[in-house]
Design a protein that fits this description.
Elements: E1 3-10, H1 19-32, E2 37-45, H2 47-58, E3 66-70, E4 106-114, H3 115-125, H4 129-144, H5 155-167
Parallel strand pairs: 1-2, 2-4
Antiparallel strand pairs: 3-4
Helix pairs in contact: 1-4, 3-4, 4-5
């Protein structure tokens, strides 16, 4: 039995953001990763807003596609995620989990997703902005679950898992390097 609290906000007024679809996709990914309880918030923002967040919290002075923040309390007995948020230069710099399916009983995280980037980049993959947005949500959730794509050693595991999960919706991304 799973218990998920999902909050999706769109700071852009666009009919292309399907909240029901995104909510369902988040629930499916969490189930696939065998996360029993989760509180996930998703903010769908402009390039300028994600640029601001990237600069303020990660020290990167450029817009990006998705930023994920793990909000689990490291002292929480229900969480088996061991991460020192104070010493991490990038909150996404997590080692890939040895057993991603057994990561934690409770996951608390936030995703910031650029809809403008999704719209712009969708053509590169030959699919819709909705599919590109789904890629960003899946990618961000995998970071919250402990996957990493920042090193040559961990990237193949994350890319494989992204492809497996996107396959649920019949999507096969192109341009995702291993």
């Amino acid at each position: 039995m799973s218990n998920y609290s999902i909050e999706i906000t769109a700071q852009l007024s666009t009919p292309d953001v399907d909240h029901v679809f995104i909510d369902g996709a988040i629930r499916r990914v969490l189930q696939e990763e065998q996360i029993r309880t989760a509180k996930i918030s998703v903010a769908i923002v402009s390039d300028s807003e994600i640029h601001r967040v990237n600069r303020e919290f990660l020290g990167h002075d450029y817009p990006t596609d998705v930023i994920s923040f793990l909000l689990n309390d490291p002292m929480d007995a229900n969480s088996r995620i061991d991460i020192d948020l104070q010493s991490a230069s990038n909150l996404n710099e997590l080692d890939a989990p040895e057993d991603a399916a057994d990561l934690c009983d409770f996951l608390n995280g936030e995703l910031i997703v650029s809809f403008e980037t999704a719209t712009r980049e969708a053509n590169a993959h030959g699919w819709s902005p909705r599919a590109e947005l789904l890629l960003y949500v899946v990618h961000g959730l995998l970071h919250l679950c402990g996957y990493d794509d920042l090193t040559d050693e961990t990237r193949p595991l994350m890319r494989t898992r992204e492809r497996e999960l996107l396959g649920i919706w019949g999507l096969c991304p192109t341009g995702l390097e291993m």
